[in-house]
Amino acid sequence: MSAPDPTRPVANQDITSILVEDRAFAPPADFAVRAHLADPAAVRALRERATADPVDFWCEVGRQDLRWTKPFTVGLDWSDAPHARWFADGELNLADNCLDRHCQTWRRHKAALIWEGEPIGDGGPEIRTLTYGQLLEQVQKFAAVLQSLGVAAGDRVCLYLPLIPEAAVAMLACARIGAVHSVVFGGFSAEALRDRTNDAGAKVIVTADGGYRRGSLLRLKDVVDQALVQHGGAPSVEHVVVVRRAGNEIAWAPGRDHWWHERMAAAPAGLAPVPVPAEHPLFILYTSGTTGKPKGILHTTGGYAAHVTRTARWVFDLRDEDLFWCTADVGWVTGHSYVVYGPLSNGATVLMYEGAPAFPAKDRFWDIVQRHRVTVFYTAPTALRTFMAWGEAPIVAHDLSSLRLLGTVGEPINPAAWVWYHEVIGGGRCPIVDTWWQTETGGILIAPLPGVQTCVPGTATVPLPGIVADVVDNAGHPLPADVGGLLVVRHPWPGMARTVWGDRERYKQTYFSRVPGIYFTGDGARRDRHGNFWILGRVDDVLNVAGHRIGTMEVESALVSHPDVAEAAVVGRPDPVTGQAIVAFVTPRAGVVTGPPLGEALRGHVTKEIGGLARPAEIRFALGLPKTRSGKIMRRLLRELATQGTVTGDTTTLEDFGVLEKLRVTDEE
Ligand code: PRX
User: In this structure, are residues 413 and 380 in contact, taking their beta carbons and an 8 Å threshold?
Assistant: First the structure.
């Protein structure tokens, strides 16, 4: 076994695989005996059946897991490929599935959401619990509020909120009336919010006066105000609904702005769910691609609902007595699928925590696990590596014995972090589900079924039943074991994205052209001789920083929009904590003085244009960038330099790429 390497390079142009790992963890007997899927032979048979006929398999899931107002008779309609349609002649409502159907059972009085705010007052943190019945009432009322503001089925509503219960209420209220939500993560800037609002043509923005993160106040309403007035604003927006969360002073546009609590107090109760066709749009979620413009990934109702409901139950082995904590913000797809829709559709109890892991001290997460008796915990490898760096003292002070299952998502987990997670957080007794998926896939595609599968640190193991994933070469031919290639999915699945909002051609180009007709994930992978998939990272110009997807082009466009910048190239370098870190090579305009002040100015500019998550870790000034004969920037050289080069920080001397230029032998990168 090789030594686990936390700085394992994420493969890019060369899809290489250097990791060999042969530690294996079979499901603990006491876990397996109670799991939803506990019989290996039955699961083998299920997999065979699902592989032989994925459509039939997913139809059964759709029928078993969801309540339909009109049952579907058609499984997959691929006639408009690559724009899939699932269960297209059926009708349902996802809020009905997440709320009403549970409220007609004993679960009406079961906790749906247990929420904890970040600030800690004299009486401890603020905690709010909403039962299924209470959550339904809130959702019914907010659906009525949206209707009173003119929102009808198909209209877009932008949600720019802290991680508070109102975020889930607003999402479900949209679903209840067939409106399409577009959640924009609260860390995005006014510019990013405006672009997304305009692209979606949102009629209403739902926000809060402020939210809390790391002890500071995030003034969200101010950002909305900026987005609505600067650079042409967002003309489609007619109303802004504001949750009073932090009590900070805000500007007010009478007629346009409405307090959430005032509108809710006046709203009628009992609004019935509006049944929609299965292919009715549910949400748009913007994600980074290889151009400067983020893509609005569109998900629809029935197929997405079936996928997230079943995967939440199987992968997290959710049971009524669980308290499931997925630490993701609802601004990301993980928050959509596994904070809100998947768990609630299963009638589970979800924990939501507003803030940061280090506030007020580095044990906040473990304090929460202990106080609330969390049983299933799902987080990102970056968080785990951060906890590792903080040492075990904040952890061992807490009783984590309630935990029974752990999960990870968002980036490859290095075996050292996996084993640490298993031992230090899981006390050696909890299986770990490493879940591979994407904004575009809607739900989990590759992950262990924890009651039956042996986990190997570093691999998400094998595709779930009904998912036909493969590792192929550029021509689409399957590759043998242990050879790195492109990760593709050969057969449509119900949770897959339907298109890029407003740009069908981009959807086809981005996902179905590299290997014609087959969904290309953008990731490299290899399969080992046991069939386990090892994700090798992105093979396109997309970075994964702390589990967040950031397109290099997006950061480059932000940099070149600064008046002092002539040209910029952005690459990733491995980072022991965040997986990858952003390094920007910048050619300043003539006469501009380079150095740390300019570096800071440019970092601030990127933060303003996109948000803090895209802030470069390092800015390096260059006289010119190395290019191919056809003028393409030689990113591979820049990546090597960023990874192996000795210069760090904002260098005051300009780097001369003349030497590198001599290495230019082909037109390739
Ligand atoms: O590169 C893969 C990585 O995250 C990308 C998807 O990012 P996003 O759409 O933001 O969704 C993240 C949450 C689902 C993938 O293309 N990724 C996600 N999960 C894993 C992963 N890489 C390795 N292992 C994973 N478990």
Answer: no
